[in-house]
Amino acid sequence: MGGTWLENTYPGCRVDVSSHLYNYSFFTHDDWPHYFSSQDVLLDYFRQFADRNGIREHIRFGTEVLAAEFDDDTCTWTVRVRTPSGDTEVLGAQAVISAVGQLNRPSYPRIEGRDDFTGPSFHSARWDHGIDLDGKRVAVIGTGASAFQFVPEIARTVGSMVVFQRTAPWLGPTPDYHAPVSNGLRWLFRHVPGYTQWYRFWLFSSSVEGGLPTVDVDPTWRGGERSVSAFNDERRALLTMYLEHMFADRPDLLRAAIPDYPPGAKRMLRDNGVWAAALKQDNVELVTDPISRITERGIATAEGEYEADVIIYATGFSASDFLLPMTVTGRDGVDLHKRWNGDARAYLGMTVPGFPNLFLMYGPNTNIVVNGSIIFFSECEAHYILECLRSLLYDGHRALDCREEVHDAYNEMIDAANRQRAWGASAVNSWYKNALGRVSQNWPFTLMEYWERTRTPDLGDYDPL
């Protein structure tokens, strides 16, 4: 159980959405120990939910889906799986729901010589707890969300650390990022009826939807790659002031810490001062020179070689490779990945023409980056999918197939809106974009709009079979 909270166990791993938003609306928790919970606490929450609702007994653990194929004659799916014993089994289903996520397949950089390094190396999402880092020379590639959390943790005990940065992240000041929830607030949650729900709503209304206007593109604004509007530029100024404060005593680090792209164009990271403190340690060095190759002894740039005992890749995930490595075959034998051709799209992020009764959760363009919790989207998607299945039961149809023109018009709208957000307008490299440069990850509108679109399926969007 637990998804990303099962797989990511690196030191310092925690959520960057408020704990009181990062839970199911129908299974709220009034005793979160921290405002932003750590990995072990979140894993325990999802395990508790599964156990209390009788879900665990319906899960087949250690089972990999190899392929799913739609039968045109019977309007059913055949799903081929590999069992824990290694055997292959074939299952039949009238509907298939994919909930494989986006951020679960580590992405490794294409750097020459990566296999030449003779010491241990691993990705942050596959942390090797058997390797003792104490006193070691450690090289970290990447300064994204994962590195931002584990670097301050391991910097305390490693012998030395070199952090290789390609693109500086914007830091969002969050003083209570590691803070425990106050005793007074926890008392209110436990003793005042409805307070937990009110607090959740207050967080939602005050901090969730308010971020979207800061990334809106003003077509008359001439901010270049610095900002996309006056509002966005004001935010840049405030965030820059924060960086200037954090690195006031290290002008060399300050120059490397100020991003050269608009706020919101890449994932912003929550910060309570530990990142700057870690980079300023005597045993830590930040390198911004591009990596030329990895050698037997470490990492080389044009300026020289940095020897290391261990290399840690904090280089993110293959987010744009939706549903890989599964083979998915729809009507008339069409292969889903050939249809997508590296540019995954779906109606509402959930349904694809020619693939009846295949529903995707956390599919294309359902990622939210400045305005909310993925839990909210998951609930909306689950509700929509169940309503579709309910309509099949009541109307007597075998399957629903999304209409091509509905799918295409929807995606044209999504693309146009994403181009009007900082992440679509900026040229900065980002996991929000696929290999073709299209923003295939992000939802560009408010959460309420997605909620409204998913409350009741418009059956006119589908051809019944």
Summarize the structure.
InterPro entries: FAD-bind_Monooxygenase_sf, FAD/NAD-bd_sf, Flavin_mOase-like. This is NAD(P)/FAD-dependent oxidoreductase. The protein is of the alpha/beta class and 465 residues long.
Structure description:
It is built from 13 helices and 18 strands. The chain is α/β, with parallel strands linked by helices and 465 residues long. The protein folds into two domains: 60-102 and 323-464, FAD/NAD(P)-binding domain; 121-177 and 219-313, 3-Layer(bba) Sandwich (FAD/NAD(P)-binding domain). The strands form six sheets. A five-stranded parallel β-sheet has the order 5-14-6-7-10, with no helix packed on it. A four-stranded mixed β-sheet has the order 3-2-1-15, with no helix packed on it. Helix 10 packs parallel to helix 13. It is globular and about 70 Å long.
